[in-house]
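Title: Prediction job returns without error message
Component: structure pipeline
Severity: low
Priority: P3
Assignee: unassigned

Description:
Job completed but the reporter wants confirmation the result is attached to the right record. Sequence as submitted:
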Amino acid sequence: MERTDVKNNHTEEYSTGQIRCIEKSDPEYPQIMKQYSSMPAKLYVKGRLPDPKRRTVAVIGARMCSPYGRMQAFRYTAGFALEQGKMVYAIPGAVTDELSRGCHKLIYDGAGIAYCPEIMLEELGISMEKVTQNGEKNNLGLARDLNMVYSCLDLRPKNPDYIVRKTGFSPAQVSNCLVELTLRGLIRESGRHYYVKDS
């Protein structure tokens, strides 16, 4: 059964092909969604679906969402992303604003807080150059091992296990690098055994 509310609200876009319907039997239907029995039989899509092998950013929002719609939005978006080990971010709003509840729930459930654009850029591997009052600080003149450990860190806390996996260094070598970077004032401990770049 086709959703007439979608067609009625976006008739022109639907009739010109800007919004199209992808059924479960269509090869373009996301493979990851076919694993679940309660997936919708049809998806209404505007634009192209991304290549599942590439890193992507999804911006999700809704207006006048029903409680059921809120639950489904979380389930079909953030829930699947978290199941796949993908990072989920939310932009917080006013605590008293009904429209912010979904974002606040995501943050409560463990989503990162996207409080500035640099957070999203860093997640996508786009590094922002660290600018100081003395000008750009591109080359810190660090030894190779210190530079590799430093490059694993950003504004989100990381623990030594994460850095060991990213660099391939031994835990002892990572620990030594973290101590040296801390002493140089380039990083700081943000919680017990969690480190961030010192901005």
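Comment from assignee: result matches the submitted record. Strands lie at 19-23, 42-46, 89-90, 112-113, 131-132, 135-136, 187-191, 194-197.
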